[in-house]
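> call design_seq(struct)
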């Protein structure tokens, strides 16, 4: 997707109130911080799930889910240095999974209930959970620079996570493509 497609995608999804949103280009291994249509920061060499990306993520497939999510919570004491949790699985992901018979109605309703209560979705569904943007913690920088190594998250170096932190708060849109 080129810049025009990116801008069309942005206009179709509401950004956070100050206009800041995150675009993750999984094919270029880049994370862009956007304010409206303007690039504010570029982070290169991000790692994704060891088995690539998918629209149909399931537990333990080590794939990064594609779609538009929101920052749901922040863990400052993560083993991966800092963890910005996404509201995965969101309603779009859950609806698609229900239609594809990958989850049952009970799971669908648990995700819907969490959304309606303003809480993060359940993290233990057949669709997986604990997806976010994080650092490498005490991990090997060489591995990070050479391989996709996560279980489905987006990983940056600890230094990049520090730089990204000024843009991140709960509610910020994260588009993964």
């Amino acid at each position: 997707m080129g810049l025009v497609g990116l801008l069309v995608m942005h206009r179709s999804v509401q950004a956070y109130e100050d206009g800041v949103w995150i675009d993750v280009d999984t094919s270029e291994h880049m994370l862009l911080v956007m304010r409206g249509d303007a690039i504010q920061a570029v982070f290169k060499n991000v790692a994704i799930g060891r088995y690539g990306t998918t629209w149909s993520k399931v537990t333990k497939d080590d794939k990064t889910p594609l779609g538009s999510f929101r920052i749901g919570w922040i863990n400052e004491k993560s083993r991966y240095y800092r963890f910005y949790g996404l509201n995965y699985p969101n309603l779009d992901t859950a609806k698609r999974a229900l239609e594809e018979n990958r989850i049952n109605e009970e799971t669908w309703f648990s995700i819907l209930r969490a959304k309606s209560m303003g809480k993060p979705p359940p993290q233990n569904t057949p669709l997986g959970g604990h997806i976010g943007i994080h650092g490498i913690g005490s991990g090997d920088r060489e591995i990070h620079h050479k391989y996709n190594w996560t279980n489905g998250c987006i990983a940056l170096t600890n230094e990049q996570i520090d730089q990204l932190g000024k843009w991140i708060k709960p509610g910020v849109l994260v588009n993964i493509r």
